Every structure is written in C-alpha cells, then in structure tokens.
Amino acid sequence: MKYLFIFLSLIAVNQCNEVQKETHFIEGNASGVANGMRVYLNELDENGRTQVIDTSIVMEENFYFDQKEKLAGEEIRFITLDGSEGNFVLLVKNDPLKVELRKDTLIKSTVVGSKANDELKTFKERQSVYVSTSRKYQGERVAALKGGDNAKAAAVVSKWTQAENEFKDYAVKTMTDNNSSIIAPMILGEMLQSKFLDAKASRNYYNAFDEHIKNSIMAQRIDTFLKKAESVAVGAKAPDFEGTSPDGKIIKLSDVLGKVTLIDFWASWCGPCRRENPNVVNAYNKYHSKGFNILSVSLDRPNGEKAWKDAIIKDKMDWNHISRLMYFGPLAKLYNVNAIPATFLLDENGVIIATNLRGQQLHNKLEELLGSS
Fold this sequence. Notes:
Layout: H1 2-20, E1 26-29, E2 38-44, E3 50-57, E4 62-65, E5 75-81, E6 88-92, E7 97-100, E8 110-112, H2 115-146, H3 150-177, H4 183-193, H5 199-207, H6 211-214, H7 217-231, E9 242-244, E10 250-252, E11 260-266, H8 271-287, E12 292-298, H9 305-314, E13 320-323, H10 330-334, E14 342-347, E15 352-355, H11 359-370
Parallel strand pairs: 1-7, 11-12, 12-13
Antiparallel strand pairs: 1-4, 2-3, 2-5, 5-6, 7-8, 9-10, 11-14, 14-15
InterPro entries: AhpC/TSA, DUF4369, Thioredoxin-like_sf, Thioredoxin_CS, Thioredoxin_domain, Thioredoxin_ResA/DsbE_sf
Main location: other
Pfam families: AhpC-TSA, DUF4369
C-alpha cells in the first residue's frame, strides 16, 4: 500500500507539471541578450508603417508572446529588440512558432514552425545571392568600359541579364505557388520596387491572389500603387496639371499640347537627367517644327530655384518648364514617379502612347509619329 501511494503521488506530480507547462504563440531564444531587455512584436498599420502590438521582457535569454486573438488568415509580423538595428520578419497564423533571435543581425534570425516561413527564408537567401551577383557584374561592366573593352562589357551584360532572368523566374514561380500566402504580395512588392515587373503584369499576378490575401494591408498598398501606375500607363489619358515657369507664369499641360508632347520629369541635381538632356534637345530641334512639344517638370528642392534655372540655360532646353520646387512632390506622385529621369509621350489628345524612351528610341518613335526631319 505504501508503494502504491508513492506511485500515485508521482503520477499526480507529473500531471501537475504537465498542466503548469506553458505553451506560447511565439517562443523565442535570444542568445547573449541581457535580462530585462525588451523584445517587441510589430504589425503593419494602414499606412504601411510598423507599430508595436506586444512587448516581452528577456529573462535567461528567453522571451515569449501569447496570442491575443485567433487570426482569420496568415499575417506578417516584425520582431524588434532594444539596442539592435532593423527587424526580423516572420509570418504567423494560429500555430506556435519558435524564434532564434540574433541580436547583432536581426535579419538573420530564424523561425521554426511553418512552411511559409521556410519559403520566405529561401526567397530572401536567393534574393541576397542575386543582389551580390548583380553588384559584381555592375563592377565588372564599369571596369570594362573604363578600359575601353566594349566586347567584355557586352559579355558581362549578357551574364548579368541571364542571372536577372533566372532570379525573376524563380521569384514569379514562388509567388504564384503561394497565392494563398502573404508571401505572394511580399514578393510582388519586391518585384515592383526592383522594376522586374510592370503594372500590367503585376495586376495579373495580383488578381490571382486569394481574397483574404488581397485584404491584407500589404496587398492593399500594392493595389493602390498599381491603380496609380495604371492611371498613367500607355493608353491612359494623361492627368492634367499645372506649375510655375521660371519667369513666374502658370503653365498647364493641356495648354501646351502639340501633335506629340513629351512630359519630362527631371532635376538639376540628377546626373542621368543631365546626361540625357543633349539627346532631348536634339530631338526637340529636329521635330518641334512638325508639332513636337516638351513640358519639363523639375523636382528641384525649395532651395534649388537658381540651380534649376541655370541648368535650363546651360543645357539649352528651349521649351516649356515648370516646377513646384518640391522633391518628388504632388506632380511626381500624380504620375507615380519615384525615380528620374521619367518621361511620358502623349498624342495630340493627351493620351499616353509611350513611356521612358531614351536615346535613339525617342528619335525612332518621333520619326514614326511625325515623319523624318
């Protein structure tokens, strides 16, 4: 009877321990992080900014977050740590996750517990390899051009293009294979930012997302971006706008339309813009008499008025100019311009017929539309 009592007591203790053992939504290890340091769980707000939704205190290199409410679908979260730069991205549903936090490089932290996080980790690794390869080829191309070896530069560009296409194909496949995961809009956002996909292709991929993914903040922001891009895509009516000319007059786009009109977003501080200006000047001189007009929109800053006006004279840009002296201000946003130079070619009705034509491409298009000079 004595032994039976001891045996039953042991069972009771074990059962009690099992009940007391806590299971957390996110269990984390933070090697090397001192007791009392705070770890934050963040989500995206409606403006795409991270906001803290929970805080955990590190004790004996461990931390945890409990689930506040059941999630309707997969969502993105960000873990940040006091005293550490950046954040660690993870995808959450309703299943427990285990995180190994690296305090010196949060981005290289790891998470166990879901296939989606494994897919995201693989994508980030492939992306990192591509970025390194791209930088390597860029350096080799510059070196070849400086050395006057155009053939070698062309060979480098060929290899660079192949690497880019391979990464793009992988990214698109990963995205389309995960239409029901938040991974899909994450990858689409990266592809748009890197200009690997245009608005039309991106819209097709977006439309294939599951409905609950389309309702995510990240997907909604992509939808907003695409709507802006579609409003200034080829075939769309160019939005009208106005601005102040160098001599203080108000000029509207609709008042200066020719048979063909080029809207040219540029700035005096933009090296690529200034290097392209002689080509645009040449095109204007050749085709203006046939009905080719230009409206240049400067994105010079508030303190850049003199530099803007001096650049117009120096580069011999003898056509209509406006500026609101704002760095990527409302006019740039209206046309979804986030890098310059950016150009839009319009027909006589103000309909966009081409975008971002450079060098000989611009001359070829003008000859097609207006005839040879």
